[in-house]
């Protein structure tokens, strides 16, 4: 569960802090107040792609930090990545500098984006208008079905079989090329592997050499600083840090016997004295080693030139070049022993394709079994969302060949009105209908995905009146088992929430800033009145707002 969110210098937000509770929470505010910036900030900690445009003008960095309560699978995944989580607390932060660099941390540990996405994806799901649009893309439907069916393990096994068969097919195709082409390929691979062998690559070498180059290139500046530091510790006639600390230690040594407090202070100063002595010796040793040698610098530059050339040619890093070397060497061995390798690979491909077919069949059976239950669940949810006559089904067709996601073509079919044939969503669903179908789908998937926090970003777009009340009711139901955060323009959803925050834009020192404040009963009434009348807070609107809040508490 998301407990606390801290946003600093993100677009129009200079500083925003919010403490969140379980249940349903709504964020409202006028158009342009900055609600989308709050969602952008949350997306930052979920590993979304970012750019320097998010950094508030006039500042050097944007920063977002979120605290979560986590358990079970999340903590196990953190342990896999070597990240500790005391008392189930997970702190995720991300910083973007004005020049576009990004740094993410999980519980203080630097985290690559793939790790950030893996962990945060188990904590939070964000659903917005673009997710509703995903329903128009049949290629995404198989993902939704697999999520409902719990096919992650089957899908993982299938992908492993698919990748293995594809790699074997690729190797076999390479051997089956014509002889002249094979000779050309052998020459190229031999040249490349020899070049990489001569480069004698070592992981991390470039970074180490660049650090050494920086030290040598700045040896004069470093030597001067080291000498100055050494002098201040030992050799400064006017003031010597070592003499001052030694004098203080000696002074306390005379009273150390008068009490533990004085003895402890004497020990601390003695420790500082020894530490200064050690530091001075290290500084002297460092200064003695610090010598500018143009020949060493020239050798470093030459080696770095070699590494940069290799990196440009073979994948952008020493590690990528080493990986390419392994693959190229294996292919070269295959080509050198073409006849024997062809027979062996053909046999291997047959085994791998059989394993792939078995994995595809298991996946297909699971999808077929889950399709009916998913369709039934969505129809029931649509009934709750004021679409009692809607029809929904999951159409699964078997493809001629296995693809990255199996051998099934999955598409959702829909009809909003009785008597109308079911058709693909892209052909018939309106914006409001799409929003409700997506909410129905997400409400069902919420029971299976294990994610504790759901954020809905204006998913109620295109609906109003009775349909908006139905959506609000569905959000309330979700909030009983999950933490639900909604960004909405609909007063019905605002009334249904257990907690209400207002996002508002003000002027501070001549700059526009976005802030957030929690609303009490009077504040909620005023905000609902504004949402109802589109800005004006009339007594009629207030009366309507009070009625909405009463209806929401009584179950709409």
TrEMBL record:
Residues 335-366 form a coiled coil. It comes from the Bacteria. One of its GO terms (cellular component) is bacterial nucleoid. Keywords: ATP-binding, Coiled coil, DNA damage, DNA repair, Nucleotide-binding. NCBIfam families: PRK10869.1, recN. Belongs to the RecN family. This is DNA repair protein RecN. It comes from Candidatus Avimonoglobus intestinipullorum. The lineage of its organism: Bacteria, Bacillati, Bacillota, Clostridia, Eubacteriales.
